[in-house]
Specification:
Elements lengths: L1 H12 L6 H21 L1 H6 L6 H8 L1 H4 L4 H14 L31 H10 L1 H20 L6 H28 L4 H24 L22 H7 L2 E3 L4 H6 L6 H6 L8 H14 L5 E3 L2 H16 L15
Parallel strand pairs: 1-2
Length: 327
Amino acid sequence: MLSLFLVPLILINLGVADTPWKLFLLYITSGLGMAGIGMGIMHDAIHGSYSRNRTVNRYLGYTMNLVGASSSVWRIQHNVLHHTYPNIDGADDDLNAPFFLRFSPNAKRYWLHRFQFLYAWFFYCLSTISWITTKDFVRLNRYKKMGFISRGKEFRKELLKLVLWKVAYYTFALVLPLIFVPLAPWIVVLAFIGMHLMTGVMISTVFQVAHIMPSLEFPLPDENAVISGDWALHQLATTTNFAPKSRLFSWLIGGLNYQVEHHLFPNICHVHYRQLSRIVAKTAREFDMPYHSHNTFGGAVWNHIKMLYSLGKENGVTDNLPTRIPS
């Protein structure tokens, strides 16, 4: 995946892409590698599960920075907020979407949400462009206010790292190609955007179908700000697997089709999830606990579309979807 990302960019900077179709092919290929890094390398590394060696995990976690995002911000957003509070509106930062997207029945509904099952895919495509431009800065500042990052020296250090990594990314991914590619600048910029559209739709779709589904729970806390049920049951009730029998697909997306196992055991490398899933499914049946799984990725995507549609209806999913996990 690292080669799939880096080699096309090296060829672009060497001036090999002397025609638009070559340039687009190389950038799109790099986009596939970028998605692979996000799902198969940095995700495990930042969870500390890629290797038993902490140093290996730390340096492979920097591959997140290599593709223009921030490993420090991701660690808080994903490891802390998402994994601790999946599908809890106001706590799970993956549900914290712009006003024109509604991912939870507990979020405020606007009239334009009735069309989100159509236009959400456009914004999924743009997700990594948002990541490399504004999102990291916005979240870094918010996490400082939330107390995850200390004010003063630590915040300034993280901000400096964020800026320097992004400067490095833009330099080799866009600025140097603008200099060395013998084509009009607008073609280079368009191809660069095409790379991110490819990465964005792949990563967003894989992560969204794991949680924004009709069969899953969106719990609300009680008057004491407590969620009913225990932590493990919460993970089972808010997460789903998909395409569990496809080994090639599982390899391509870093085992993220086994989201249930990942949420229960985020410190275990994804290469073990297939075998682990048999034990988890059997145990869930034994104790009458939920275990959600879709046979195919296409079926999961279709159900995600139906969920987006229901969330946009005036009298849709919000009227019949459970908001409490049973004890």
